[in-house]
Amino acid sequence: YGTACFVDTEPNDSGFGDRERHFAEVLADWIGYLLEQRSYERELEQQRAFIESLMDSLPDPLYALDTDGELIRWNDRFEELVGRGDIEGTDPATFVDEADREEFAAAIETALSGASGTAEATIGTAETRRPYEFSNAPLRDGSGTITGVAGVGRDVAERQATQERLAGILD
């Protein structure tokens, strides 16, 4: 990593004693630890930037919830969909039409219990509400414990319009 230099105003012809040698070793270990920590912090920041970029590159709204069902992470598409960015700690069901909240909440509870859950719900701002299909799955830590829910929404407005046209043709 580098060199540590010790300077004194008085020359020392005898070299380092045991105490000075021990001090130098402790100091070198401490400096090595700090440099290693800085390296890990840079690597962690690069990983965070990568994950953020990955999430924001997706065309669909993506979100993560804690075990209380509150938002802890989301991508730009989710922000655009709900028309707000200050949503940390919010229950995502508050953005869903009231008629769809029970089904939406049930899909999240299913994921929190360990299985995947899907729900269709209308969501958006007051001006732009659209139907989405939300798929939720449990998030787990390294030991397999459920730590939250990951969810993604898919705009199904075109699919619903096609189904209605087909139903009209068949009637």
Strand order of the largest sheet: 2-1-5-4-3
| First and last CA, distance | 78 Å
Outline type: elongated
Based on the structure, what is the oligomeric state of the protein chains? single chain
Count of alpha and pi helical runs: 4
**Largest beta-sheet characterization:** 5 strands, antiparallel
Can you give the mean pLDDT? Answer: 90
Order of helices and strands: HEEHHEEEH
Provide a descriptive summary of the structure in words.
- The chain has 171 residues and is α+β, with helices and mostly antiparallel strands.
- The chain has 4 helices and 5 strands; from the N terminus they run αββααβββα.
- Strands 2-1-5-4-3 form a 5-stranded antiparallel sheet, with helices on both faces.
- A hairpin with a 5-residue loop joins β1 (62-65) and β2 (71-74).
- The chain starts with 17 loop residues before the first helix and ends with a helix.
- The relative contact order is 0.11.
